[in-house]
Fold these 2 entries.
Entry 1:
Amino acid sequence: MDDRKISIRYYSDLLCVWAYVAELRLEELRANFLDHVELEQRFVPVFGNTDKKIGQGWAKRGGWEAYADHVRQAIESFAQLPVHPEVWRAQAPPSSHGAHAFVKAAAVLERKGEIDAARRDELSGRTSVEELAWRLRLALFRDGLDIARLDVQLNIAREMDLPADGIRELLENGRAFAALAEDYEQATRDQVKGSPTFVLNEGRQKLYGNVGYRIIEANIQELLRDRREIASWC
């Protein structure tokens, strides 16, 4: 990482509605701090088993139908974000693990130079892998698709002109899941409790949940100010 940049580990689950909402904050962060922040996107397994998380966890609150209403209402509070009227009804992903592994496979190929990481200008400040994660979120929340399905994942990769065969190979040989395990292990070390979570200042600061952009910005500005003051003593 560039020593002049602040490192932020950003944890999310692709099935998490508040991580979908957080994309609005990430867009602002990239627009305002792209030259000052190194954003490291990682996954945390909040929806590893949706039957347990929602089917059982929401049983006393109305079950799957109530959860689907909750998701739709949460998104409708943000006019910038599209939402499918049948989200979490017609297609309910059983787990986020597969979609996470799919994105990590693309990240492995990006590190090897087989996916172009330098497409930020055409992807609203995102890298190709970040864009893949975003399009998977859109497929779920905007289009109502089951993004746990490999065919859905591969179609999105092909639409982006990503090497779908290379991604599939990393899923088949287990390397994608090894990369995903690193994320989950780091989340445990960082004591991440849920999605989304921003980990700043080498783990000393955590911003968890539906946190407003101004709070994120204030924390970054403070870290940048501290760095300038330390540099002034040299």
Entry 2:
Amino acid sequence: MGLRLIITRPQEDAVLLAHELEAIGVKHLIAPLMVIQESEEKPPSLAGVQALLLTSANGVRAFAHLSNERKLPVYAVGNASAMAANKEGFENIESAGGDVRDLAELVCEKLDFREGAVLHIAGSVMAGDLSGVLSQKGFNYRRLQLYHAKVVDNLPLNCVNAIKGSLVGGVVLYSPRTAKTFVNLLTKARLENYSKQLSVFCLSEAVAAQIVACKWKKIIVAKKPDQASLIRSVKEFVTLDNFVKLEP
């Protein structure tokens, strides 16, 4: 049957990930655990702002829906956010290619705190202490919440049936919040005993730390906290799995 993974990302991001998995021969089941709700805001004031900080593709899209500004420099936490910014027409984009710490380092390296504020487009829940690090370095850090990721109340029925029927071999988890939600909903659906048949692909160690309440077939953590690295870890797993099956 080949490997089939549950994609837990919000719908729009899940579709993009599904295409990349298909390209390496991995099947998928899209079962979003969060629904993105954009805030009803007026176009944000950008007076005195020298750059935008983007830590998710959802933030990119939320900002783009409210503002026509595309010339301000954009500093993205990773390549997925950078690609989303490029798709929305931003002209000056740099990617930290990692996590919030990498983004803070990139901002400190590229920008002068005396040249203006940095505006972080964010959701209601954030990972890391971007504010603390940049403020300590003298930056005028501003945060603008433009969306909220609402957790679903139950695992989607197709996801439940697929786990019970052994129709999936694993799950992809991108954030600590999503990982914790998946474990909670798995328990709520009384499927915790099925975790032993699932391999879990985590974007980072912080994500993996949220799933220790269950026993899994295998936990695989991406070498770097970005989508390209995660895809590579899936590809390596598939290659190794096929090799093992060919052993006499």
